[in-house]
Amino acid sequence: ILQGYRAEMDNPAMLILMPPVLRNRKDVLFGNMPEIYDFHNKIFLHSLESCLGAPERVGFCFLDRREDFQMYEKYCQNKPRSESLWRQCSESTFFQECQRKLEHKLGLDSYLLKPVQRLTKYQLLLKELLKYSTSCDGVQELQEALVAMLDLLKSVNDSMHQISITGYDGDLSELGKVLMQGSFSVWTGHRKGPTKMKDLARFKPMQRHLFLYEKALVFCKKREEHGDGYDKTSSYSFKHFLKMNAVGITENVKGDHRKFEIWYSGREEVYVVQAQTVDLKMAWLNEIRKILF
Fold first, then answer.
1. Domain presence at residue 105
2. 2 occurs within a structural domain
3. Would you say residue 283 lies in a domain?
4. pTM to 2 decimals?
5. CB burial class (10 A; 0-12, 13-18, 19+) of residue 53?
């Protein structure tokens, strides 16, 4: 892919076949695929091959290179830009010619999806290895490697949602890392207003998509964009945010185990938040507690 497509974008003989919108945009189309390729080709493949006689060391290979896998997050974040460019010129003669020379049955887009698919495949492979490794050396490392890969998947998924936030004036990266994101029913009350907490239950809740960052809790409204199948994307229009250093929580709200309360600057504003399940509520409270305490 890097030689048969990416390098061809610099080939003067192929320039005439290339649509103008594609020129000088190989970094958009391929993202950091060269970096991923180099990592696997020069580093990770060799360390995996060194485990041929001792498969129990595979977990250690993953843990040893844990930081390097962050490059996949970068690749996935670029994916929407890449797909958008591909859609504009997928029919071009340039791509058809490259595909013909390579004798590939599948188009380039199938191969651009490979790094994303590989990321989900790793945790499945580690699960399989664990299944057959109950009482041998290296089990703990395998378990830790699986957790690390699942964390990476979650982190990639969260950041993919984050890049769809619209209408936020500042720089979201200044709020720190995205720790959690998800959809909730939210009721709002203000101390100044006449609303008592028990009256809140009567009102219809708002549906909000919440993003928990290290420094802020961001409230958005989810908008489904129109598209078909794979092209269908959601965007999140920014509503408001609460700085974590002024937030308090009440873990239980009468009448529903799935609800908890988030209040702001000494209960000046109160938000009753309902998760879809009690487990989900507890996961969020755990993360919020970590930040607060």
1. yes
2. no
3. yes
4. 0.77
5. exposed
Q: Where are the beta strands (DSSP E) in the chain?
A: 165-166, 178-190, 206-213, 216-224, 234-243, 247-250, 259-264, 269-274
Q: Are both 41 and 137 inside the same structural domain?
A: yes
237 and 142 within one domain? no
What gap in Å lies between CA 226 and CA 246, rounded to an integer?
A: 38
Return the CATH number at 139: 1.20.900.10
Residue tagged 């887009």 (tokens): 109
Non-local (6+) Cβ contacts of 144 within 8 A are 59, 63
Are 218 and 95 in the same domain? no
Q: Which two tokens stand for residue 204?
A: 């219809």
What's the rounded Cα separation, in Å, for the pair 235 and 247? 26
Q: How many domains does the chain have?
A: 2
What 3-state class would DSSP assign to 275? Answer: coil
Q: What's the confidence (pLDDT) of residue 171? A: 87
Tell me if residue 189 falls in helix, strand or coil.
strand
Taking the chain (293 residues) in runs of 10, the rounded mean pLDDT of each run is 96 93 94 97 95 89 93 90 92 95 95 91 92 84 94 88 88 89 89 53 83 95 66 80 93 91 88 95 95 92
List b or e across 70-83, with b for residues whose CB sees 16 or more CB atoms inside 10 angstroms: ebbbebbbbbeebb
C-alpha 166: how far from chain center: 16
In a domain, 1, yes or no: no
DSSP H helices in the chain: 26-30, 33-38, 45-49, 58-64, 70-89, 93-102, 108-112, 114-131, 139-162, 197-200, 278-292
Evaluate whether 44 touches 64 at the Cβ level (below 8 Å): no
- φ/ψ of 277, rounded to 5, equals -140, 160
Contact call for residues 189 and 195 (beta carbons, < 8 A): yes
Provide the token pair at 251. Answer: 């873990």
Boundary of a domain, candidates 144, 163, 182: 163
Look up residue 224 and give its two tokens.
């489904």
Same domain, yes or no, for 33 and 159? yes
Residue 256: which domain range? 172-292
